[in-house]
TrEMBL record:
PROSITE patterns: TRBD. Residues 171-183 have a biased composition (Polar residues). GO terms for molecular function: tRNA binding. This is tRNA-binding domain-containing protein. Residues 231-334 form the TRNA-binding domain. GO terms for cellular component: cytoplasm; protein-containing complex. InterPro entries: Arc1-like_N, Glutathione-S-Trfase_C_sf, NA-bd_OB-fold, tRNA-bd_dom, Tyrosine-tRNA_ligase_regulator. It is found in: Cytoplasm.
Length: 372
């Protein structure tokens, strides 16, 4: 390891601490091994003590141990290593495999580069977006104890510019924008029975009230049906967590996301966000989405939902809505004072989305609101 003796010991102490946390071991049991062993030996000893077998991708683990062992301690020299890591992380969330579960390789590399990353200037951090996204993910996914200072990311804050004209449709939640940009091609056949049922109910109502001023009852029924069609309660709005995002294979304006909504499998959703967000920006981000739109293909890629976003007035900035703090994937989102059961599947023939979304907007505090 390209460091002096003191920093070498400190780094290895950090590695031992984080690996022991990862494997649920007491780091004190290995403190005496730190001075006389390299990272590889420390890792092997800790792995044996954990009772776990060597991972199937052990060669990859060893590759990252070699990276950690050769990572320079000098603040200027380390930037080359961080650039290398940034390139490697451009297409994945963690160092090993295609999933989202941190491995011992992530823990080791995080421990080694932490002091270098935290010392970077803001412009330097901005040149390493994948490293910074990964560091933030690891420090929030792994319990690394108090050994590592929290790295605070300066994430861009979206400031709605619609406070003075919140009632204007163009300032609404970009559910509107998303619907405009990514309309689902396939139209559903759902709710034919609902139509017949509504019609039958209307006839019964008219017959029963025939002698009780029918000219007043009919408009009331029409108003009730109209209100029902415009109710935001028809939308099944849920919290989601974007597990993976990538560019649409044939449409530059579209991104494809795999979103966890608390179901057995993730949902694939196509969104018109490529102009405003990168796949890296969306990965591991919590979002709010409508899940009862009928699945359909957008430019030959299946989409099973609609991500809700907010935009500024001229639509130059668009960002996905953030769910309430602590809300878990799959939890429903409702609006205060509005009751009702969501449709199983929205019916495009009734233009429910087109009628409801113009009344979705963010207030002066940036909170999503429905104006009925």
């Amino acid at each position: 390891m390209a460091t002096n003796g003191t920093s070498d010991i400190k780094r290895k102490q950090g590695i031992v601490s984080s690996l022991c946390k990862h494997f649920s071991l007491d780091p004190k049991a290995f403190s005496s091994q730190v001075p006389g062993n390299d990272i590889k030996t420390l890792y092997i000893n800790i792995l044996k003590s954990s009772g776990k077998e060597s991972p199937q991708n052990n060669d990859e683990v060893m590759k990252w141990i070699a990276f950690a062992d050769s990572f320079p301690g000098d603040s200027k020299a380390c930037y080359g290593g961080l650039n290398e890591l940034n390139t490697d992380l451009a297409k994945k969330s963690v160092l090993l495999g295609n999933g989202f579960t941190p491995s011992e390789a992530d823990v080791i590399v995080f421990s080694v580069i932490h002091s270098s990353v935290i010392a970077l200037s803001t412009p330097e951090k901005e040149k390493l977006p994948h490293v910074m996204r990964w560091m933030d993910y690891i420090q929030n996914s792994e319990d690394l104890g108090a050994h590592f200072e929290k790295i605070l990311l300066e994430k861009p804050v979206f400031e709605p510019q619609m406070a003075k004209a919140a009632a204007k449709p163009e300032v609404t939640s970009s559910a509107k924008g998303t619907v405009q940009n990514t309309k689902i091609a396939d139209k559903p056949d759902a709710e034919k029975n609902a139509k017949k049922s509504d019609s039958a109910d209307a006839k019964k109502k008219a017959k029963g009230d025939k002698e009780a001023v029918p000219e007043k009852k009919a408009p009331e029924k029409e108003a009730s049906d109209k209100d029902k069609e415009l109710s935001v309660s028809l939308l099944n709005i849920q919290v989601g967590l974007i597990r993976k995002a990538w560019k649409h294979p044939s449409a530059d304006s579209l991104l494809v996301e795999e979103i966890d909504v608390g179901e057995a499998k993730v949902r694939q959703v196509v969104s018109g966000l490529a102009k405003y967000c990168s796949p890296e920006d969306l990965t591991n981000r919590r979002v709010v989405l409508i899940t009862n739109v009928k699945p359909g293909k957008l430019r030959d890629v299946m989409s099973e939902g609609l991500v809700l976003c907010a935009s500024n007035e001229d639509h130059t900035k668009v960002e996905p809505l953030l769910p309430p703090e602590g809300a878990k994937p799959g939890e429903p989102i409702s609006f205060s004072g509005i009751d009702g059961k969501p449709e199983d599947v929205l019916n495009p023939k009734k233009k429910q989305l087109e009628k409801i979304t113009p009344n979705l907007f963010t207030d002066e505090k940036g909170v999503a609101t429905f104006k009925d």
